[in-house]
Design goal:
By secondary structure, the chain is α+β, with helices and mostly antiparallel strands. The protein has two domains: about 190 residues, Neuraminidase (6 Propeller), CATH 2.120.10; about 250 residues, 3-Layer(aba) Sandwich (Rossmann fold). Helices cover about 20% and strands about 35% of the residues. It has eleven helices and 36 strands. The strands form eight sheets. The protein has an eight-stranded mixed sheet with strand order 29-30-32-31-33-34-35-36, with helices on both faces. The protein has a four-stranded antiparallel sheet with strand order 1-2-3-4, with no helix packed on it. Strands 5-6-7-8 form a four-stranded antiparallel sheet, with no helix packed on it. Strand 17 and strand 18 form a beta hairpin. The chain is globular. The protein starts with a helix and ends in a 7-residue tail after the last helix.
């Protein structure tokens, strides 16, 4: 039994934003028909099956990447409606109230304040961001003056609030600060205390007795630090990242209680989940993969994970190391798991990393290389129905984590400073060359695809090497200088750090690289019509340019999509066209009888 196109088009990230209250566990699940995220609930001790609480699209648009779009509160839930960013409260009885509706304003990072019957949130509009408290009686301003706010969290006693803030031109994983302030009985903030380690801070959490624990990478790795002492104390010196890069609000990949705690560590790009209880620590996952979120409650410890042999799952960690799957199943299909691949690059001792998924047909000489977005993001060795589908269709797949990717420490991330458009291309070449040492490949049957920032890498590599017959750019960056001028506020200072001045942006952009290419190029562009990160005008401009210079370019423009293609019908159309183009090239190569290029 093989994957259908419909199954292949299903995104791997179908579960997100895990939270608990005293009786139930909540999470977001992607609707199979609309692609929207819906809010689900499972009553832990009721014996009932999980149920959908809110079928409307739930989601924040803060920073364009959202996160923290709901919070369980007083037996009900406060949530942000995706399409208009209205903040709604739904009671345990199902009654709804509109708590906040402000024109052109987004909400995210929601945090429940049950003592004061309100929810705290990051509020964003054209003037900037701020921390606010919202209840059925109105809105209260808590903090303003910083460029960005994130990760608000209230102590278990309800007497303190911690949050992260940062300023342009930095991204939150480059330089950010932690603040802690007391909360009065009426909910006003006291004078905050600030921690600034000269690096980045993320995911503050309160542990037992209101101990404040955050992740800081000032020692080179995202490691847990307790900061509410006379001198901050590192709780794990293991030389690994313990969380992922904070693109979204409301992420939680560590949690602490009086008698136990759960945390993560990343090794060779794979994430293992650990649980410490009764004086002993054990690994939870049979094989490392990816941990989306964690939550502790009296009724159980929970995690949303992705594994090499299963899609997204909601797990319940019970006593005696028993793991129960609440939501999600293993696919009854045979795939070939990821193989670790690395190659020397750059300065002595530097390497680039990737995961290689062999085709089911061992003699295949066809390859699809995938470049993730960000570029400060990552790919993981987890089950992906699209990768499995391509394996079944006779393609090897190589997922690359170029220098600058997350999950390999601060030094690896900062290798990309001033080097984007150069080192990422070098890493693709190095890893494909390393792969050829073990696997025969035909360049006429090799393809490269990249999404967002990965689109820039894919297009540049296509234009400057003969490693690939064609490329697919999914809402990819084509003109870096224009992107810096047009993109949204969150990433408005990012391009200068990645590339440097405008001259560097121009020279490393696909628009100029392709203009200098003397052979016709074959590119499929996929673009959302409402994309505010990579605006459609960039994509259409490069398409026209390729066609004017003898190449073949096609653009699938999905009018109602944003930065990322989410609707199932759109994803199916996109993948069907992409596969058709790859098959056309492979068929032509077989007719011509091309030969394998030696390493």
């Amino acid at each position: 039994m093989t994957h259908t196109l419909t199954e292949a088009a299903e995104p791997a990230d179908t579960l997100a934003e895990l939270q608990c209250d005293t009786r139930a566990v909540h999470w977001l699940a992607r609707c199979a028909t609309s692609g929207a995220m819906q809010l689900w609930q499972w009553q832990a001790h009721s014996g009932a099956t999980p149920r959908c609480l809110i079928s409307d699209g739930v989601g924040s648009q803060v920073n364009q990447y959202g996160g923290g779009s709901y919070a369980p509160l007083l037996g009900g839930v406060a949530w942000v409606r995706q399409h208009d960013q209205v903040l709604v409260y739904q009671s345990a009885q199902g009654d709804t109230e509109l708590w906040q509706r402000r024109p052109h304003t987004a909400y995210g990072g929601l945090c429940a304040d049950p003592t004061r019957q309100r929810v705290l949130a990051v509020e964003e509009d054209a003037c900037g961001q701020r921390l606010v408290a919202i209840s059925r009686t109105g809105r209260t301003l808590l903090a303003e003056g910083e460029d960005f706010y994130g990760a608000p969290v209230i102590s278990q006693s309800g007497n303190a609030l911690a949050w992260v803030c940062w300023s342009l031109p930095h991204m939150p994983w480059q330089r950010s600060r932690l603040r802690l302030a007391s909360l009065t009985a009426s909910g006003e903030l006291g004078q905050p205390t600030e921690w600034d380690f000269g690096a980045a801070i993320g995911q503050p959490q309160f542990g037992p007795n209101d101990a404040l624990i955050c992740m800081s990478d000032h020692a080179g790795w995202w490691q847990p630090w307790r900061v509410d002492l006379a001198s901050p104390v590192c709780l794990s010196h293991a030389p690994f990242d313990h969380i992922t890069t904070p693109w979204a609000l409301g992420e939680r990949q560590h949690a602490w209680s009086l008698d136990r705690h759960v945390y993560c560590q990343l090794h060779q790009g794979a994430m293992q989940l650990y649980r410490h209880a009764n004086g002993a620590t054990h690994a939870v996952l049979a094989a490392p993969g990816r941990v989306i979120g964690l939550a502790l409650a009296e009724h159980g410890d929970y995690a949303i994970v992705q594994c090499p042999d299963a899609g997204a799952q909601l797990l319940r960690m019970e006593r005696d190391r028993v793991i129960r799957c609440v939501v999600g199943n293993k696919p009854p299909l045979v795939t070939r798991s990821a193989q670790w691949l690395e190659a020397p690059v750059g300065n002595a001792g530097e390497t680039a990393h990737g995961f290689f998924y062999p085709a089911l047909l061992a003699s295949s000489e066809s390859l699809i290389v995938r470049i993730h977005g960000g570029p400060t993001a990552a790919t993981y060795p987890v089950y992906d129905p699209l990768v499995a589908y391509w394996q079944e269709q006779g393609f090897h797949v190589l997922d690359i984590n170029p220098r600058g990717s997350a999950n390999f420490g601060r030094r690896y991330r900062e290798c990309l400073q001033g080097q984007w458009g150069l080192s990422d291309r070098e890493d693709v070449i190095a890893l494909v060359s390393a792969l050829r040492q073990r696997q025969p490949l035909d360049p006429a049957c090799c393809f490269i695809r990249g999404q967002s920032a990965g689109g820039l890498t894919a297009l540049n590599t296509l234009a400057t090497t003969e490693l690939f017959a064609a490329a697919t750019s999914l809402y990819g960056v084509t003109d870096a200088r224009r992107l810096a001028a047009q993109t949204h506020r969150f990433e408005s200072g990012y391009l200068a750090w990645l590339m440097g001045d405008e001259q560097a942006m121009d020279s490393r952009s696909p628009l100029q690289r392709i203009a200098r290419c003397t052979r016709p190029l074959h590119v499929l562009f996929v673009q959302g019509g409402q994309d505010a990160v990579v605006v459609p005008e960039q994509t259409l401009r490069l398409k026209t340019h390729i066609e004017a210079h003898g190449g073949h370019a096609e653009c699938l423009l999905f009018t109602h999509e944003r930065h990322g293609i989410r609707r199932p019908q759109a994803r199916q159309a996109m993948l069907a066209r992409e596969l058709d183009r790859y098959r056309t090239h492979v068929h032509a190569a077989r007719l011509i009888g091309t030969k394998v290029v030696a390493p």
